[in-house]
Specification:
CATH superfamily: Glycosidases
Distance between the termini: 27 Å
Largest sheet: 10 strands, mixed
Order of helices and strands: EEHEEHEHHHEHEHEHHEEEHEH
Shape: globular
Number of domains: 1
Helix content: 25-40%
Number of helices: 11
Strand content: 15-25%
Radius of gyration: 18 Å
Length: about 350
């Protein structure tokens, strides 16, 4: 999940991890399927185990068409953010021409749902998290933040919202507290209206688990009675100068996370703790460089490990990178930088999705 500019190399609370890129200026809107209405009825629940790669929503491409071409039933769509710090209105890519409405991606999401899948809207990303335009950093009203989350549910018929919190946002204690209070408010609303809404936190990681600021974010969620369904760790961009075995480091990072979750949720069984885990890879050469290369063999190992451990979510950044069109290039948004068949990583992970 690449940063918008390679020169931005921020350290996160004394650890060298970075993550998802910003919502860039959008080139296009809601796909090519017309303006069909999206049902407002409660959405189907997410599978117990789901592969849901990120889709770069600023490219002008149709998520429904790329999902069909790649064989993905579920996509995580990035990103939603405000257009300016201080605003309480979220837009796709921070672009005021792309509001949360059926006219923006609505028909694409409906097409994905008609094939038995769904979309997972994602808030934040590195760019939003460093410019004060992540929704909970930007907006000081918990009720207004909650209403935005609820609007995603009622507009698109989705059942999970992803929150990418890193860089400055992971240290913004006021934003963290507002976000978690809003999650709890949405969960009460969902219970009263008969809806299903999950929340995932996408967070940077070390090779041995979350940094202290990530643990503090989750502790705040516990204190606010906000249910976190998935903690999705970004198992790439460790930025420590070492050469990494990316599959092995995914396993150690996730094991460290489970230990941290056990301290936060002492009543949960080991199986339930593992089922809170998500991992997001960056296929090929990530934006640190060749020392952090997630190979096709790594994809097979990670998928088998994920099945054996019973984790919740497998993802990667990003669907548009799932091709071998730029061998040797690090951190591209449009190709993996390694020799591979088109959609190799999608196909390697697709068997993971099951109820």
């Amino acid at each position: 999940m690449r940063r918008p500019r390679p020169a931005l190399r921020a350290l996160l609370s004394c650890i060298t991890v970075t993550g998802l890129s910003a919502g860039l200026v959008a080139l296009g809107g809601g796909g090519a399927f017309g303006a069909d209405a999206v049902p407002s009825r409660p959405a189907a629940p997410m599978p117990a185990h789901v592969a849901a790669p990120y889709f770069e929503a600023w490219t002008g491409e149709s998520p429904a068409r790329l999902a069909a071409a790649s064989g993905n039933k579920y996509l995580t769509m990035a990103f939603l953010q405000t257009d300016a710090a201080g605003s309480c209105t979220a837009y796709w890519n921070g672009d005021t021409t792309q509001p949360v409405s059926k006219g923006t991606f609505g028909a694409d999401i409906a097409a994905i749902q008609s094939r038995g899948g769904n979309a997972i809207p994602s808030f934040g990303g590195y760019g939003a998290d460093t410019t004060g335009t992540e929704l909970a950093d930007s907006c000081t009203s918990v009720d207004a933040i909650a209403k935005v989350y609820e609007s995603l549910v009622t507009t698109y018929g989705i059942s999970r919202i992803d929150l990418d919190v890193e860089a400055d946002s992971i240290n913004n204690t006021a934003g963290i507290d507002r976000r978690n209070k809003a999650i709890a408010e949405v969960q009460r609303w969902a219970e009263h209206t008969g809806r299903r809404v999950q929340f995932s936190y996408t967070l940077p990681t070390t090779t041995t688990g979350l940094a202290p600021n990530g643990v503090a974010l989750l502790k705040n969620a516990v204190d606010n009675h906000a249910r976190v369904d998935v903690v999705n760790i970004m198992t790439f961009d460790y930025w420590d100068g070492a050469t990494h075995d990316m599959a092995a480091d995914t396993e150690t990072a996730a094991a460290g996370l489970v230990g941290q979750l056990a301290a936060l949720y002492p009543k949960k069984s080991p199986a339930k703790l593992w089922h809170m885990v998500g991992v997001t890879e960056m296929p090929g050469i990530d934006d640190f460089g060749p020392q952090e290369t997630f190979t096709t063999q790594d994809a097979v190992k990670v998928e088998r490990w994920a099945e054996a451990k019973g984790i919740n979510t497998l993802s990667f950044w990003a669907l548009q990178r799932d091709n071998g069109g730029c061998v040797g290039t690090a951190g591209s948004n449009s190709c993996s930088g390694i020799a591979q068949d088109t959609w190799y990583f999608s196909h390697a992970f697709e068997r993971f999705t099951r109820w």
